[in-house]
Amino acid sequence: MGRKTTRQTDIAQGLHYIDPETGSVIPPVVASTTFARDEQYQLVGGHRSYSRDHNPTFDLAEQMLSRLEGGHEALLFSSGMAAAAAVFQSLKPGDHVVYPKVMYWGLRGWLLEFAERWGLNLTPFDATDPDDLHRRVQPGVTRLVWIETPCNPTWDVIDIEGAAELAHDAGAVLAVDSTVATPVLTRPIELGADIVMHSATKYLNGHGDVLAGALVAKEDSELWRDVKTHRAETGAIPGSMDAWLLQRGMRTLFLRVSHASSSALAIARHFEGSPALASVAYPGLESHAGHEVAKRQMHGGFSGMLSFLVNGDEHDALRFVSRCQVFIRATSLGGVESLIEHRYSIEGPDSPIPKNLVRLSVGAEHVDDLIADLEQALR
Ligand SMILES: *Cc1c(COP(=O)(O)O)cnc(C)c1O
Fold this sequence. Notes:
This protein is an alpha/beta fold. It is built from 14 helices and twelve strands. The protein has helices spanning 7-12, 58-69, 80-89, 105-118, 132-136, 160-169, 182-185, 222-234, 240-250, 253-271, 291-297, 314-323, 343-347, 367-378, and strands at residues 73-77, 96-100, 121-125, 142-148, 173-177, 195-199, 213-217, 277-281, 305-310, 328-329, 339-342, 357-361. Helix 4 (105-118) links the parallel strand 2 and strand 3 (121-125). The model has no long low-confidence stretch (mean pLDDT 97). Pyridoxal-5'-phosphate binds at residues 79-81, 104, 106-107, 148, 152, 177, 179-180, 199, 201-202, 211, 213, 333.
């Protein structure tokens, strides 16, 4: 490649991959778990010995992730949870961690339990109060600031640049769960983050058929080396076929995210002020508390995720959900098929999520069909 091309072009062409032996423009799936040695007992293929740590099918997906996030190095994991857990399990008992009160439900639940057993010292902060993070970070004490933006499922926006400054002034590391924003819209490393985490199950793969996670590091560090050792030793990795499907899915990431973002904005605008709704939560709306920060750190859209707060209680919310015919009633997000979910029913009575909140993941369908479906269901 003589000319420097944009991320979109590089990703669409799988970093301009061409197999040197066959000329194929798509890489092979290497299924082997082990790698041969020669008579001198040297590895025939260079450094690879066993696929828990050295799977060649990971190479292109990891290089694409580094390119997407502008990072030093990327690692694939078996799920988003495994990727996040690798960061927390690389901390030491007694380490202080600050995390948002509202965040991906599964991770918050695991973190609270794990911290108790591992002896991590956790402090939650309120992402809706711009000064609260400042109050919770302890200079010289805090080791990790974990944030998620936009935050699931209220889509609160956290100022990444501000969080990075607070974390670094205190001597802490900033990690960002950027699953919802995707590297198409936000690049946390450019804004000062040290580690970016993704549930690659969602937008990165984008087709609802792979469970995977990823971490991308800004630079090499002691924590990052511990994360790498952790993955190599515990084997929290996807299989070859899943890694291969992920590089395939990522090739259309820019198209999918830009379509989903523009449809989500159209839906949010269409239904804002609807008499059937108490409010619409979407960072792309001027009425959203995080809109100004979102405009600064999200480029080209505000993601395909939004929530409706229906007028009424959980029964009204569930009635609305039950009438949808195009939106599919299912959990997860970031796929080409639009999903609708009543989060409170999933999370249960301990959930901080309002009972009238309905979460929408906007897919690749025609936006007119999605709007018509929501309209008939709200009527
Ligand atoms: C889904 C999700 C996760 C967990 O990822 P899995 O791949 O399901 O393990 C973490 N964070 C966010 C924001 C998610 O949406």
